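Hi R.,

Here's the chain you asked about this morning:
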Amino acid sequence: MSTTNGHAKDLPPAAHEQVDSHPGVMTGRAPRMSAKKIRVLVAELEVPFDASAIEWRAVHTSKVNGQLRGQVIPYADQRAYIDRLNALVTPAGWTRRYAVHSTANFRRSKDDKVAAKVFVTCDLTIFGLGSHSATGEEWADDENAGTSAEAQAFKRACSCFGLGRYLYHFTGVWVDLDDRKRPKTRPRLAGWATPDGWRQGLRPQQQPPNQEVSQEVPLAKPTAAPGRGEAVSNEDAELIRQIEGMAEPLGKRLYRGLLKRVARAWKPSDISEPTIMRKLLADMQAGDRMLSQLAAILSRVGPDKLPPILRSLGLSSLDYVDNLDTLKKILASLEPTA
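And here is the predicted structure, written out as tokens:
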């Protein structure tokens, strides 16, 4: 049994016992665990992965004085999730099932190409605990579309049980990148993002917002935001990082639309008023929640329900949504079908 990600040797006995009480585990008829065992198992699922299982991905890049820098966020390969489940409940204690859907071809906004989207829904069951489902998506013209959407759906379903959920607390940190857009110096995880720190009771909300992740060499203060001509306070720099971190989950059109409507700015570092930054971040987080709701509904009713609604709003694709009001209308139209 691997201990790299699961730390099985450190688990309380109850975390191992729940699988032994499943006489019908392979048929899915396992009795529900006691409340005590559920608490123990969920607590172990929530423990962060070992630092050796964490990789870093650049979501934004910028040139600063000729040096390539990037905003990087941590992630774990789905094998780390599988290792943790196997360590906690054994391979016989959980199962997953996938459903694949695809849309008709439509023109996407980012490059004006015509392509379809692949949606994969993962139903993850931990016997005796319950089931959760989530959906992943990718453009069909990506040769790894199915694999990427599958991994995304699986990890999102895992997060419903608490596994890997802590990774959602990261908003990214700016570091120097090499020519392959990899961090030159591996960022150091804050205490709450390590197994030992988590077990000691550290949690993300106990950390100052700008210290979720730190570089091996601390940044000088005040922090200079890429693309901004003057030094900014740590609070402003953190707001800028959080806003920039919303670009990927929102998509280019909605992200740019909110920037323009709320802040009348082209990029977050152009905003000088903290109150406007906070309003913009709140709206972007609301948009992210609505997109998650939309994905959950589509996983139940199927993606074919969406195109007629989009056409009624004069849109050829969800990628053309650039404001929250339109997103609310789409959700309101879909909710009765769900």
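One quick note: Residues 227-338 form one domain.

Cheers,
M.
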